[in-house]
Amino acid sequence: MSKNWRFELNCSKKEDGIVSAEAKGDSRPGFSAVGFSSISGELDIADQEGGSSDTQTATMEKVAWATAKAPAGSLFMTGFMLWMSGAGVHIFSIMITGMALLNPLKAIAGTNETFKRFNVPGVRINLTPMKAAYVGIQLVALSMGIWKINKMGLLPLTSADWANSMLALLKYDESSYHSTQTMGE
Known about the structure:
Mean pLDDT: 77
Oligomer: single chain
Low-confidence stretches: 33-49
Number of strands: 2
Largest sheet: 2 strands, antiparallel
Radius of gyration: 32 Å
Distance between the termini: 129 Å
């Protein structure tokens, strides 16, 4: 005897075209039902009908901003790993620093690919501020890697770091010039 199992993703039950509050989502404390407004507690008509273009645009903008801000969550972890790896030039600190330098560069290079999914034909969103925030966060992550290279002593910032590439200046011995003149003249 076998039992037939059924799994439904659409758990809402419609009664006369209106979605009931109990059927729309979980009624346990701490869970919010999808489609309910936190202010009025009633279902949005656009959500019942599948969403209007304004609702879709607003939702896509929220998701785009969430995508743009997502790398900020890893900044503290990257900073902690850079701090824990120490200031010495060791294999572990070099690997962590390499990760801190290459990952932001890869992310900046793939910015258009990251936001490609928001170019939906029916929904028009200006992604420029989201992309600018995304690149700005990646530049902060890149600056953390550059700071680590400086703390390791691998960033050439002083004149002593460039001493080998400087041209040798000709030194004139002024004492020999003065010694050829006589004191009595």
